[in-house]
Amino acid sequence: MRHLSSPTNPTLSSTYLLHLDRGSSGPASSRSAEVGLLVVCRYMSVCAASSRTRARRSADRHCPLKMDQKEADPSFIPGTGQVVLYGEFTGTDNPKVKYAVSLTEEDLSVQKVLAPSSPAAGRNKLSFSLKDCVGARSLREEDDHRHADPGGVYFSAYFYPLRKRWMSSGAARQRVEQRFRVASLRDPRANLEEAEKWARAIRERAGLLRPLGHGVVLSAVRQPCRVMLLVNPQSGKGQALGLYNGHIQRMLSEAEVPHTLLITERKNHARELVREADLSQWDALVIISGDGLLYEVINGLLEREDWEQAIHTPLGILPGGSGNALAASIHHYSGAPLVSSEELLVSCGFILCKGLVSRMDLISVHLGSGQRLFSFLSLAWGFVADVDVESEKYRHVGAARFTVGTLVRLASLRVYRGRLSYLPVADGDDAERGVIPNGAQHTFHNSCNSNNALKAKRRDPPMLTGPTDTLLAPVDRPVPSDWVVVPEEDFVLMLAMYQSCLAEDLLAAPNATLDQGVIHLMYVKAGITRASLLKLFLAMEKGTHLATSCPHLEYSRVRALRLEPYAPKGLITVDGEAVEYGPVQAQVHRGLARMITG
């Protein structure tokens, strides 16, 4: 195991906060923890741009300006609220050009100051939402050597607004950095204080933009943070570490999120690490990998003696593998347009920096041997499981491995025999999704020191503890009388989903939500043609497969299920990982885990 601590800057203040109840283990505190949570990012943002077109084309725009302070002038305000700060800045490259910058409770506005007689006067205003800002900081020249300005003082703001793609349709989050020079005072210390005043004012106003979580207003508790960042360098095409170096390290620095990087070295290494780690040293566990590494982390947390507290440790996911299904689901829940590859990584990095934590369902899965494990994404048998496992040989092509695997399996379509039973969701049984309300206590702390407890001990995984499964009968006994037994016994596939996406480009359960307490069960009966099955998967790219009226496709919302394969050999996958083949049953545990969702 290798670990690296992120560089720290003594001039940076801690702005990334996470708040979650870690009360005692009694019933009352447990209920409080179930409904408690929040994470907030304080942002700082000051922006300037010469034109909308150039800002759209540039991902890293710097605008060093000289500030000339004035009282707030309402004529420069975009009309979104009361002015908090106002200043006029002159460009370093052209000292004759001035920009009026004003801060309101929601926006930062930038406008080139022109003569009143100019035809463009009043029409060159740009407004930037503080909701798109991940952070900002004040800098002295010695902190950044990109500007040859001895004694200069700056503050930079970092935005990730949704912008139209340059070469394709749709929109994606794109990085924009804006930099301002503070040099109106002769005393460098006074200039630094002035720069920090602007930064602090914008961070505070951005922090007051509390997100609405299904009607619950989340409040801010300003505490520092400590993040363990786990990277699997072998995931996907082996580029996870490069994605960290190319994007995530910079984003976390911009948001002032100190973290310790841990590079996994073998299968189940992350499982061992979190099982043995002193979690009081960490306030969030974030992974850069595919879905397999998070599967290890969740099951490692539930193998601990203190699993009830451990599983409430906020988790974050950044796509670095082939499937990236949960990362795509988190992005989908944010309401942003469909993206993939590095655009998905930037979106999930933005969500991580925003820092809102929600509850996430976990599914308890029992195998025929008596082993119990926990799943956050999917349970598959038949066609989907075969593609998951057999496409491993095409891992070098990245996410395209699933397309290749699908075509190969379609060429030799199989039928799988077995018995499927499930407990349907009763009418009116859907409670409102819960967001952990104000008053919870889980904080990030500003520390990046290494932790000796991370030296994981190798031992056989214990039987998982965890919540009691009240809906399941022993697998060798009949299902309860209120269950439905599917009359058909010949299937092409069975897929149980609890998140929306099966892959970056497959919206398998479009109505799924993070903490719905529902398993979305789909199965395809034997007799479907290759062409019809291919059409289903093509429709799944847009989430319209359930509306195709395919007579072989069945869909149900369930709380629990049981699958009993008849064939002696086959494949069953949980979260894309092959597990013991044989009878399997599962039930949902609503809101058991915590996930950073933006």
Query: What's the number of structural domains?
Result: 2
**Which overall shape is indicated by the principal axes computed on the Cα atoms?**
elongated
Look at the structure and give the CATH class of the largest domain.
Mainly Beta
Average pLDDT, to the nearest integer? 77
CATH architecture of the largest domain: Sandwich
Task: Characterize the main sheet.
Answer: 11 strands, antiparallel
Please give the alpha-carbon distance between the first and last residues.
30 Å
Helix percentage? 10-25%
Q: Which fold does the CATH topology of the largest domain refer to?
A: Tumour Suppressor Smad4
Low-confidence stretches: 6-80, 214-223, 431-461
| Count of β-strands | 30
Radius of gyration: 26 Å
How much of the sequence lies in strands comes to 25-35%
Helix/strand structural class: alpha+beta
Number of helices: 12
GO molecular function: ATP binding; sphingosine kinase activity
Subcellular location: Endomembrane system
GO biological process, one term: negative regulation of apoptotic process
Domain DAGKc: 222-369
Explain the layout of strands and helices.
Layout: E1 2-5, E2 16-19, H1 27-34, E3 38-41, H2 52-57, E4 65-69, E5 85-91, E6 98-103, E7 107-113, E8 125-129, E9 133-140, E10 153-159, E11 162-164, E12 171-173, E13 176-182, H3 188-207, E14 212-213, E15 216-217, E16 227-231, H4 240-254, E17 259-263, H5 269-276, E18 284-289, H6 291-301, H7 307-310, E19 315-319, H8 325-333, H9 341-354, E20 357-367, E21 372-375, E22 378-382, H10 383-390, H11 400-411, E23 416-424, E24 484-485, E25 490-497, E26 519-525, H12 530-540, E27 553-565, E28 572-574, E29 577-579, E30 584-596
Parallel strand pairs: 16-17, 16-18, 18-19
Antiparallel strand pairs: 1-17, 2-3, 4-5, 5-6, 6-7, 7-8, 9-10, 10-13, 11-12, 14-15, 20-21, 20-30, 22-25, 22-28, 23-24, 23-25, 23-27, 25-26, 26-27, 27-30, 28-29
Helix pairs in contact: 4-9, 5-6, 8-9, 10-11
